Amino acid sequence: MISPQGQMARNPRNTVTDLLFMLGRSFDDAKLQEKLAGWRFGVSASAEGGVQVEVTVKGEAKQVPAARLLSLVVADVRGAADAFIGSPVKEVVLAVPPAFSEAQREALLEAARMGGMRVKHMISSPLAAALLYSHTTCLPSVTAMASEGLTADSAKSCAPAAPAYLLVVDVGGSSTSVTLLQRGAPPSDGSVADNFCTLASETA
User: Which of 103, 96, 113, 111 is nearest to 26 (CA)?
Assistant: First the structure.
């Protein structure tokens, strides 16, 4: 299998990047126009004024909407998840960049649907990162202690204290975002689920 870097060197006109950046934007978008010079693949305006990418498939030139191309990536990721879990992934929670506009969120949702995913919820990507961090640093210790004979309540009380604040830094291909989250009060049912709220978020 050829690496993305190798594919870009061998076939630059057919190697597409920044699909998330294109989603939900008009072709006349000022930020998109700034990036055009750096792209080695072709981009043009669709009949609706959106963004479509010029690719060659089996020797035939095609103009494909960015959301459609992203749906192929989604389908590939879903296939990998199916193989890893051993059963079909039917429903997902979708993590969305915090700076996404409503139009970009809708375009990403459509791409996920076209890729065969049923989206149950959409949450911000910093929140998704905070939940993953919390569950991989705190919950395993609770599970391990419970397996040693401690009750669930005792295991929770012995687990390392989770931080009250989390700073999530997302360095992407086209932007960098910094988000400060605060852990809220634990759920009233006594579970170990997390409750975060966003205090501030900036994207550059």
Answer: 103
- The two tokens of residue 114 are 């076209």
Q: Tell me how far apart the alpha carbons of residues 92 and 204 are, in angstroms, rounded to a whole number.
A: 28
Task: Determine the Cα–Cα distance for residues 3 and 1; give it in Å rounded to an integer.
Answer: 6
Residue found by looking up tokens 């049923």 in the block: 118
Beta sheet of 60-65, edge-to-edge order: 42-45, 51-57, 60-65
Give the pLDDT confidence of 44-74 residue by residue, as tens digits: 998 888 899 998 888 888 899 999 999 998 8
Cβ atoms within 10 Å, residue 108: 24
Q: Is the pTM of this model over 0.70?
A: no
Residue-wise pLDDT for 95-116, tens only, equals 888 788 899 999 999 999 998 8
Question: Which amino acid, 168?
Answer: V
